[in-house]
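Internal ticket #5521
Category: modeling
Description: The requester needs a full-assembly model to guide mutagenesis choices. All entity lines are attached below as received. Residue total reported by intake: 380.
Assigned to: D.W.
Attached entities:
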Amino acid sequence: MCKEHLTSEELIELFYKQADGEDFPESSHLQFCEECRLEYDEIGSILRRVKQSPAPALLPDERVEMFDYAWDRSRPHWFQIASWFRKPVWTFGVGVFCGILLTLLSISGALDLVPSAQARPPLQYESHGFTQTISGEFVDSFYPDIENPVIVLERNRDEHNRSHPVLYGTTEGGTIQIVLNL
Amino acid sequence: MREETIVSDEILIQAAFRGDETAAAHLYHRYADLVFRISCRIVLDRVLAKDCAQDVWLKVFRYQKRYQAGSSFRAWISTIAVRSAIDTARKRARRRAAPMEETFLEAPDPHVDSIRNIMDEEKIEAAILAALDRLSALQRAAFILRHFEDQPYAVIAEMLECTEGTVKTHVHRAALALRKRLSPFFQHWEAGSCVKNT
């Protein structure tokens, strides 16, 4: 008569050890303890029967369908890439990067964001009655020594009250520099 | 088939990562049954298990760079499959009010004709499924990996992110629960084998 029987846990462990072909010291106990051997046989029968359950398998169509689905969905599409930028971290990161880039360009002078106060249009033409005025950067390039030169074409009258055109240049201050009687 | 034995999983997954669909298909067909088998046995619902397995492959193809070169691809994909299946099984358990019915637990009679015996086999299969369904998702996962997939406790512990001792406890409790629920059939199997022998 056996005083100490194997626990259910030990019997289960013995079943798996034997299934793996490993040695288990308690296995010799079964040779002389009928009670444990019967319990072991019952556990073994149940576990062996459970193991005989047919393995679930995919049907051929399901197998192909599953691969196509997973592979197609895993490819990075353009809209998926765009969706990355919808994430807050990306938006924040891109914003910070653009800000730093603009600051650096602005500091280095590569990016002239604020137009100069001195900047003038290339050629400005104004007409008031018989007087026509031309100014701008184009005129500036002809008279680099004069500040803001203006070319004026107007009709003057002489002492006989005859009208004739006069072409002259002037500064914004009104100082006449060049006069041409045409 | 010859190519499948030559090309390693690692080469296939690297090629798949570069967008090689053929390599990805080779890898898929090598492990599709394993992933589905694990999912189905843990989730215990064919439709949900199919969705679960599909998600596993999506994760594998999408996050394949997370696979550590040199490690076992089989272990990596099994881990993904087990964890996904446990999540699915838990969601399924929450959605469902009662587990599978056990009205079929009446032990079948061994002294009947063969057609009846086929029906009895179906009853036994249903009883096994119901008994497995009564286990927690974690217990079931541990038991299935040990019992059906013959994985060592250390590997299962890594997959389930717990200690070997915990895995052993899960397996033992699962086996004891199965024994308790299936023992009514034990006499039938014993008697059946006696009938065959005589």
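Resolution: model delivered.
Comment from assignee: The mean pLDDT of chain A is 78.
Ticket closed.
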